[in-house]
């Protein structure tokens, strides 16, 4: 047998095998063997056309419903649009908005000042609490020595100390005079004596 005939037979066998494989795949997919691929294409086209027609039909129905039911405003519905508004009214609204903006800025600035003052007051309160803890022994000593009323006594002592400080400052200014420098030592001794007497008086309280 010539080589050319063998080649033809081999190619025919290969084609038959390819067709058999394609038919087997199509049969597994569709469950039956179609008569031809043209019928498959025609059927697919018919299905696509049917789906397009159905989509177009129902979309048109939805469009008509939406335009007549959803987006249509009924005659008895009040829209609330005032067509009498002119530019002068807009100017008044702009002025009112600007005034409100200034009020808001002023309120923010005042709020910031309040926060700063609050922080200062809290620091002062904390400082006063620490001072209160330091002088809390005065209450115990006052009860032990039967000093009452304590606020009046402390106020009296404070006034006396302020008066003594004032006298001291006046004396200090006087000492600066050349004529009184000779009495500096005497004044120092008197200050020591006054300080000693004040301390004794404070301890007796």
Count of domains:
3
Structural class: mainly alpha
Main beta sheet: none
Task: Give the helix tally.
Answer: 6
- Average residue pLDDT: 74
Distance between the termini: 145 Å
Global Rg:
55 Å
Outline of the structure:
This protein is mainly alpha-helical and 205 residues long.
Tell me what you see in this structure:
This is 1190_t:CDS:1. It is found in: Chromosome, Centromere, Kinetochore. It comes from Funneliformis caledonium. One of its GO terms (cellular component) is nucleus. Its main location: nucleus. The chain has 205 residues and is mainly alpha-helical. It folds into three domains: 68 residues, no CATH class; 40 residues; 59 residues. Helix content is 80%, strand content 0%. Helix 5 runs antiparallel to helix 6. The longest helix has 48 residues. It is elongated. The model has no long low-confidence stretch (mean pLDDT 74).
Layout of helices and strands:
Blueprint: H1 3-30, H2 37-70, H3 87-134, H4 137-144, H5 150-175, H6 184-204
Protein name: 1190_t:CDS:1
Coiled coil: 111-148
Pfam family, one: Mis12
Structure characteristics:
205 residues; mainly alpha; 3 domains; 80% helix; elongated
């Amino acid at each position: 047998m010539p080589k050319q005939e063998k080649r033809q037979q081999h190619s025919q066998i290969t084609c038959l095998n390819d067709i058999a494989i394609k038919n087997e795949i199509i049969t597994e997919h569709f469950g039956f063997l179609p008569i031809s691929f043209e019928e498959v294409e025609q059927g697919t086209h018919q299905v696509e056309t049917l789906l397009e027609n159905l989509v177009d039909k129902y979309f048109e129905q939805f469009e008509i419903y939406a335009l007549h039911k959803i987006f249509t405003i009924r005659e008895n519905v009040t829209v609330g649009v005032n067509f009498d508004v002119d530019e002068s009214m807009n100017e008044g609204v702009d002025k009112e908005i600007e005034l409100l903006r200034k009020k808001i800025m002023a309120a923010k600035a005042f709020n910031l000042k309040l926060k700063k003052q609050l922080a200062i007051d809290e620091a002062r309160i904390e400082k006063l609490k620490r001072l209160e803890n330091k002088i809390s022994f005065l209450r115990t000593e006052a009860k032990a020595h039967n000093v009452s009323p304590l606020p009046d006594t402390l106020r009296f002592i404070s006034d006396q100390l302020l008066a003594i400080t004032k006298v001291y400052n006046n004396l200090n200014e006087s000492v600066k005079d050349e004529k009184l420098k000779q009495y500096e030592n005497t004044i120092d001794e008197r200050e020591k004596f006054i300080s000693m007497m004040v301390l004794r008086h404070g301890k007796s309280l």
